[in-house]
């Protein structure tokens, strides 16, 4: 499977995932009458006009004392070749989207308008994909990072009722592709009806490594549609890690992991699997650097907890681990220091400066029988990741292990990581007869 692909962009609870499906399905319906009063939350409308053939109307009810409302959205754009530095690029507003554009951070605020009914509203044309957004109150554009962000109360997502260490301040909306205005082929992340989804479970496990919360730590788990706790053949299990500043629910909200998995299963491209998303925050004072606390906790506590409470395989050939950014560095930590724990790895925009390995690390890596999936955005200039990631892939090939490389235009953002997860699920994880 050794391959390198630099591709172009082509055109908690058990009820939590259910609620998200219903919201997404409802908000993605066509608006039959443009002059009808729209509900609160996002409404996706097919316009058949440029630049993308779709627009999203956001309607938000703010407290009466608020004098202005802004929407924070991950939807500013640039041609890839114009992004030559970290934070560089064209940063065009959605109305100026062009074919070939990629999302271009830093994200900025757009002012909303208050109607006669007191509701704040804004229409935004968007290309296909999953977009995260939130609202701010009376926030100056230059202070976007210091203003409090409010998730959409009409579209709260599955993490709304969780404790602060697992909660989200962002909501999501999915936009389909209009064939008359080709944007990106993102159907793989499209929401599915509630009755075609599985179950989201939020758990805590005991661990002495956890300092916040003390002695216990959160896990977010997705059980696939039709999950059978008594099935004779246990399920494969995929462990995912968030990046810096995130938490265990990132992959199930911004990452759209349940939809990506279920769409792949429905198309016969993947088998039903359990997804476990970890939280590396608060695992000791050195948990933001490459320490051993995360790896020790994974092997000593997380994996045993999951295998004790869910019908998952206890064999390494049925375990995968993948992470984004600093979570990709966690994947490297597990790959190099805990041989025989996982047979499939995903190193995505991995936040580790070195692309080489010590003799001991090379020996541990060489024991891998499965596949390492390596990928990044080709314009990811954070810590020179767009350069270090391909170099790391080459170092791994030189060790003699199977490497699948998947790079695509873009920066250090969720559009890249959703695509990496999709490729990993469909083409790498659990595909070998080990």
UniProtKB/TrEMBL annotation:
Keyword Signal applies: yes
Secretion signal span: 1-31
InterPro entries, A to Z: AB_hydrolase_fold, Esterase-like, Ig-like_fold, Mycobacterial_A85_antigen
Gene3D superfamilies registered for this protein in UniProt: alpha/beta hydrolase, Immunoglobulins
Recorded superkingdom: Bacteria
Pfam family name, one: Esterase
Keywords: Signal
PANTHER family per record: DIACYLGLYCEROL ACYLTRANSFERASE_MYCOLYLTRANSFERASE AG85A, ENTEROCHELIN ESTERASE-RELATED
Name of the molecule in the record: Enterochelin esterase
Species the sequence originates in: Schaalia radingae
